[in-house]
Write a structure and sequence with these properties.
single chain; 129 residues; 6 helices
Length: 129
């Protein structure tokens, strides 16, 4: 049984692209930017804190919202707004904890108890960071 790779579109595509080559694929966006950011600096800090509280990677935050990845990493590292940013993250973590506990009410019996125990354990682990 032989594999016919001559007709496969990826096998036929050139390995590199450059000027003058007709490549129908769109290029990847520059690292960290998939769209323009339409938020002010204050909103950006809140957005980064909320996404960080939900355990979303900095590169993903930058990709989804368009916030400069250098700003995101500086906030997370504590280089910018070292007192305020951790308070915001703690606020959003508490908010996430309360929402998850509220959502666990739809479960019954042992599954609800186990889910609430997991939520509390995750929250304690996040708070202890």
């Amino acid at each position: 049984m032989s594999r016919d790779t001559d007709n496969h579109p990826i096998a036929a595509a050139p390995a590199t692209t450059g000027p003058g080559l007709d490549d129908p694929r769109t290029p990847s966006p520059p690292y960290g930017y998939s769209r323009e950011c339409h938020y002010g600096r204050e909103q950006q800090v809140h957005i980064v804190a909320e996404f960080h509280a939900h355990k979303i990677r900095p590169s993903r935050i930058a990709y989804r919202v368009g916030i400069d990845i250098a700003l995101i990493e500086a906030l997370i590292a504590g280089e910018l707004e070292p007192e305020r940013f951790p308070r915001l993250v703690a606020h959003y973590r508490r908010q996430r904890f309360q929402q998850r506990m509220h959502d666990s009410v739809r479960l019954n019996g042992v599954s609800r108890f186990e889910q609430q125990q997991r939520i509390e354990r995750d929250f304690q682990r996040e708070v202890d960071l």
